[in-house]
Design a protein that fits this description.
single chain, alpha/beta, Rossmann fold, 2 domains, four-stranded parallel β-sheet, globular, Asp/Orn_carbamoyltranf_P-bd, Asp_carbamoyltransf_Asp/Orn-bd, EC 2.1.3.3, ornithine carbamoyltransferase activity, ornithine carbamoyltransferase
């Protein structure tokens, strides 16, 4: 009981600053504590904290992967899940993550967004001794903010119509495992505007990655990511490139990582032949589920495809976020090297091409 009370007190004391946007990042100093803070937008965590979460995820993967092991790291903690009808995999994955950490789970109704007073719902959940609320999916991003306003304990959103932070952390783990670094790489996104697109643009430039994106037009209406302006500012700050492309050949040109999501535009289907325009050591990612129209089997099942690896890494990324936002934890393994060795980035390198919308 004392431990539960202490964890609630810590969560409440940190909550007073949880809604403040954190952008400062001091080199060579440890990141600030994540305990008790919310996470539903990438802007809520610093560059150093992103690296710390990836590092923690690698550490947890090393400890738990392939083992039927249960720890006591979150013993005495209760996590409330706000479920979603279409997110069965996320619910299974997150339940497994919490159980491996030794925490208790309470699953709440799937229609929480229909509540007449969402802040009041958040207050009720945190009052009933919940140490964290994990939202599987939200149709409206603003609803997460309303929920967090009512909660006195941290709120974590796995996915909504704007962002999907834990998936991008998993992708970054996969990219690092494949290339040995993150800085200096180029990702190409092909497909419709998606929460993943917004999150890529809001996160990758901060770690030294450039982005090409080709987002299709729907009903003759132009589409640009909601985080485009933020991405341009981040690229200016970090000396990276954000390039909007108008065809498949252009977006794939010299890209190290090719990512896509489900769509039915077969004219822009990714094929093994189209991969000839990508970098020699390309890597493929798919957000899942797949419809088979957006990418051919030869690419999806290629040895360079890391879709299922990234899907598995999402377990460790989710574990890392839940753990670090609830209690102090220091990884026991050496911190990965995210920077590319001997890389030189000119201050004039940043270029933007935001007007060429198809």
């Amino acid at each position: 009981m004392l431990r539960r009370f202490y964890s609630k007190w810590r969560a409440f004391s940190w909550k007073t600053n949880s809604n403040k946007e954190i952008t400062a990042n001091t080199p060579n100093k440890p990141s600030s504590s994540l305990i008790g803070r919310d996470l539903y937008e990438p802007q809520q965590i610093t560059d150093a904290e992103i690296e710390t979460l990836i590092w923690t995820a690698f550490d947890l993967k090393r400890q738990f992967s392939g083992k039927r092991k249960k720890s006591h790291l979150l013993e005495g903690y209760r996590i409330t899940f706000l479920s979603a009808p279409t997110k069965t995999y996320s619910e299974i994955m997150t339940s497994s993550a919490v159980q491996m950490l030794g925490g208790d789970i309470v699953i709440v109704q799937k229609s929480w967004e229909k509540s007449p007073d969402i802040p009041q719902l958040g207050k009720m959940i945190s009052t009933l001794c919940s140490d964290m609320t994990v939202v599987m999916f939200a149709n409206v991003h603003e609803n997460i903010k309303y929920l967090a306003d009512g909660c006195s304990s941290p709120v974590l959103c796995l996915c909504d119509n704007m962002f999907e932070i834990t998936r991008i952390l998993a992708d970054l783990m996969t990219i690092h495992e494949y290339f040995g670094h993150i800085e200096g790489l180029r990702l190409a996104y092909v497909g419709p505007i998606h929460a993943i697109t917004n999150t890529y643009i809001a996160v990758l430039p901060r770690l030294g990655m450039s982005i090409n994106y080709f987002c299709f037009c729907a009903h003759d209406q132009a589409q640009s990511p909601a985080t485009l302006d933020l991405g341009m500012k981040l690229c200016t700050k970090n000396g990276t490139e954000l390039k909007e492309c108008c065809n498949l050949k252009e977006v794939l040109y010299k890209a190290d990582i090719i990512a896509t999501s489900q769509h039915d535009d077969t004219t822009n289907r990714i094929t093994l032949e189209s991969m000839n325009d990508a970098a020699e050591k390309w890597m493929f990612l798919h957000s899942l589920p797949r419809s088979k129209l957006e990418v051919e089997d030869e690419v999806f099942d290629h040895p360079n495809s890391r879709t299922w690896v990234s899907s598995n890494n999402k377990v460790w990324a989710t574990m890392a976020v839940i753990l670090k936002f609830l209690r102090e934890y220091e990884p026991t393994m050496e911190k990965p090297n995210f920077a590319k060795k001997n890389i030189f980035v000119s201050s004039n390198f940043s270029k933007f091409k935001s007007g060429n919308i198809c």
